[in-house]
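Working notes for the structural subgroup meeting. M.R. asked for a predicted model of this chain before we commit to crystallization trials. I am recording the input and output together here so anyone reviewing the notebook later can reproduce the run.

Input as submitted:
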Amino acid sequence: MRRITGVLCALVVAFSWTAGHAENILDNPDFDTDLSSWSCSSGDGVALWDSRDVDAASGSGSVQIDNNAPSANAKVSCVQCVPVVEGDPYRLSAWVYFADEGSFTLDGSARIQIAFSDDAACTGVVGWGDVATLDAAPGNANTWVPTATPWNVAPSGTTHVAAILVSWADVQDNTTRTHFDAAVLDAFFARADEIVRVAVKLGDAE
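Returned structure, recorded in token form:
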């Protein structure tokens, strides 16, 4: 009998995946000296820069929104539009301060949300992300409280995202004062870091 020795090598490809967060893609997310890069609405109230800062940092500040509540559900918002990649998940977070002082009440909420757009001005919306709502309850007053939206995947056709910070009034004529600071818009991604090729000896055959 003739003995035949054979070695068969198979190529095994193994992917090492790394998940991570992209850097904050917002401009002026900490409102260091002004509201540059943000567009803030008026009519139901006013948005301006204030020196109150989440880190109590000298020379930095936040956006202060006074909602005059001319009607229930009145809102004042600040928006920033930035380029993104369709198919990637995005999340918006921020720190919120409700001022319970003077004539300002706690009859409202802070809401943050992202809107997916197909243009550089974020005027055309192709999808909305989930809203994160933080009520101006006594336990949230006169202190900084974090809030964040869930991860939302940019739908097909998305080229930009609008990051939206909103002061929402619940009761007509009950003015509220809300600060936003340290806003973060980041992406979640996964990539193949390396490919491992392994030669496998399957055995001998008679």
